[in-house]
Amino acid sequence: MRKVNVTDRERGRRRRAAHTRAAPSAPRGLAPRVVALAGALAASCARGEAPSRAQGVSERDPATSSAAAPRSAPSPPSEGSAAPAAASARAGSDEVPDAAAAPPAAPADADDVVRWPGRAVVDERPGDRVYAKARFVWIRAAPGSRGAWIGYLSLGDAVRVKGGDAARALVPGTAGGGAGCVAWYAIEPFGYVCTGEDATLDPQDPVVAALRPTAADPTSPWPYRYAESTGTPVYSRVPTEAEQRRTEIDLDRHLAAIARAATGPRAAADPLLGVDVSPATEPPPPFPELPARGRPIVRAVVRGSTLAYTRSFAAHGRSWLLTWDRAVVPKDRVRPYPESHFAGVLLAGARVASPSADAPRLPLGFFRVKARPKYRRGPDGVLAAVPGDEWPRHGWVELGAASVVDGGRRYLETRTPGLYCAEQDVTVVAAPREPPPRVRLGPDAGAAAKWIEVSIDGGWLVAHEGDTPVYATLISPGRGGMPYPGLDPVSTASTPVGQFAVTGKFLTATMISSSDSNIVHAEVQYTQNFSGPHALHGAYWHDAWGEKKSGGCVNLSPVDARRIFAWTDPPLPLGWHGVRADVAGHAGGPDAGRMTVVYIHR
Q: Is the pTM of this model over 0.70?
């Protein structure tokens, strides 16, 4: 039960523990205070800050929207403030990443993940492209650095120029500029990008050749690989032994511990528990000189923060990781996260390539926390658990309309005759409600209107198209539950209730904890702003679906985050890293005004 009377001391404790602000590297989004810099966006609902001058962002090019972006969720890039990048983070208390908490489940149906949204994620058409060499390569509504930004590219991204022909896509009169911007090109499907220091048309550019293979992967629920830092330094290149000794004062003791861990079992209290001490075998990657706005800008990833990386390699007798932003960290100072493959359920109304006649329908029951027994009537007519037969943790079952009371407990009948589950064991995702007013009265009212329903206490999400539910899954809302009257939801780690709209979408964005700005979640995948500092986003650091876990955002499993991201409007254009849904129409975007409604209730 939620406590209503909160003392001043308790309010202060909750505010310190729950407040998270968007961090370095996540582009600043809809509001001047929130950011999702190319390298950082925080994990438990966080408030963001804009890219910093250290990244070469011009002070004369401020964010163009005053709408607030999620403090724990990514928001569109903002252009004039500072934020470290590099990569890692963890948010407070319940949001602490657990490197051993997510036992791998059965792999999700990858083909289904791609088919359901029905949208391509990789542009394979021939033609000239603009290649990004910086954390933020702004996409403008019109040529010129003072124009409103409507999206951005990030390190290694590439977007096709309009029509695939650079000569025709070149904006007349813009060639031969200066100050890092040489010429403006129209790109697809709309907008303009300037080539120069941060972007190029040359696919053979040495920086492009190095960045392209390690760019974020939009075809995977894990655009990067992820790990928790045990307190690692960050190097701009592979360090010499002398450089390692100057930076890592415990190096000899640490390497000796690594050698022991590699040859014997580790105790539960071993600080190296979860660290992968196996040697890397690949050679070092190339390290071309990145432009100022593309270089790593932090020197360490504090213990408990997370980092995103792209590959491991061996050099100077030690194993290393290449981070998403081309920094280098010791492989023996991080704990890789296991991948949670939990995924929701495509429902009968979903439009897929090969619809199934027996596709599930609501209501569904999900089983949280642990496996739950199945019940049938025995010879004596009493309901009893079937020995050795259980629904797995995070499993689901279709429910019928009947329920019975037996032995003082209520049981729900499933759609398999005679098979029951205990009401107390199951989270029921009910049949759809009537679409909220923002959907019924909006510009897309009708069968195609997309909206998302989230239950905070139920810990579930249902995606709808008009009156038809198309997808159901478990989510993790704020650990504070429902908002407290008169208190900012951020201060109590609560998830706001009401009707909102997806206003910004980011392939990845780094978030930082507002209770400790040193702690961040690096490159959180498939982030969608919907209210101030709150967003829907993937969570690679836990597997507690259905449980209250976040700092106020709506956490989805990596598979679900990618599915929902690909389904919502407006779509992220091919090749883009982020898009501001609220201003896409400034550049003639075909999806202007099509912002998926998010309806959150108890």
A: yes
SS3 589: coil
Nearest Cα neighbor of 138 from 203, 204, 61 is 61
The predicted-structure confidence for 289-321, as pLDDT tens digits, reads as follows: 888 888 877 889 999 999 999 999 999 999 999
146 exposed, middle or buried (CB, 10 Å; 0-12, 13-18, 19+)?
exposed
Q: Which amino acid is at 187?
A: I
Distances (CA, A) of 137 to 24, 27, 486, 522: 16, 11, 40, 19
- Residue-by-residue DSSP string for 320-379: EEEETTS-EEEGGGEEEPPPP----EE-TT---SS--TT---S-EEE--SS-EEEEEE-T
Q: Which among 439, 389, 379, 451 has a CA at the least distance from the CA of 598?
A: 451
Distance CA(81)–CA(83), nearest Å, equals: 7
Collapsing DSSP to helix, strand or coil, 400 comes out as: strand
* DSSP-derived secondary structure letter, 215: S
Please write the tens of the pLDDT for every residue from 220-253. 999 999 999 999 999 999 999 999 999 999 999 9
For the chain, helix, strand, coil in percent to 5 are 15, 30, 55
Q: What is the DSSP string of 3-19?
A: -----HHHHHHHHHHH-
Is residue 27 within 8 A of residue 506, CB to CB? The reply is yes
Contact 83, 298 (CB under 8 A): no
Cα of 317 vs its chain's centroid, Å: 34
